[in-house]
Amino acid sequence: MSNMIGLSNTCLIDRQKVKYLISSIIVTSVDYLVFIVAFKVVGLIIANTLSYVVALNLSFNIQKRYIFKTERNITTAYIYIVIFAIVGVIISTTTLYVLNYFLRNIILAKVILIIIMFYYNFYSKKYAFNDKR
Predict the structure, then answer these.
(1) Residue 31 and residue 6: Cα distance in Å, rounded?
(2) Residue 23 and residue 13: Cα distance in Å, rounded?
(3) Looking at CB atoms within 10 Å, which of 43, 62, 67, 116 has the fewest?
């Protein structure tokens, strides 16, 4: 079975990316909700770190089951994902801080950050799971 969805003769969408997008919407919603609630209580850095960790674990469980073909030992894949997450949370928090500094709007900054991190997370997880598709 092809991994592509034909929408027209010239437009093809990768099923894996569509499923990843759907899971990302779910995970992002949880990330965003945790961030907004925590931001009011503990501030930007802790709130972003907390929301990132919650989202990481939720996405790992959804994506190992429904999206990526796991070609690695699951423990090894999780270790890779944690390493990528540590790098990701540094990138994410730094980028959020800079965006908020310039935009002076934490909500808009977080939305822009989510878009940026979508690509980082997709390709780092694809590597972590060793998915060759």
Answers:
(1) 32
(2) 16
(3) 43
CB 129 within 8 A of CB 71: yes
Which residue do the tokens 């990526």 mark? 68
Tokens 């990132």, located at residue:
52
State which amino acid sits at residue 14: D
Q: Provide CB contacts within 8 A for 73, sequence distance 6+.
A: none
- For 35, counting Cβ atoms within 10 Å of its Cβ (0-12 exposed, 13-18 middle, 19+ buried), the class is buried
Domains of the chain by residue range:
15-128
* 59-98 tens-digit pLDDT: 889 988 988 888 888 899 999 998 998 898 899 989 999 9
Cβ neighbourhood burial of 104 (10 Å; 0-12, 13-18, 19+): exposed
Alpha carbon distances (Å) from 71 to 90, 110, 126, 130:
27, 33, 10, 5
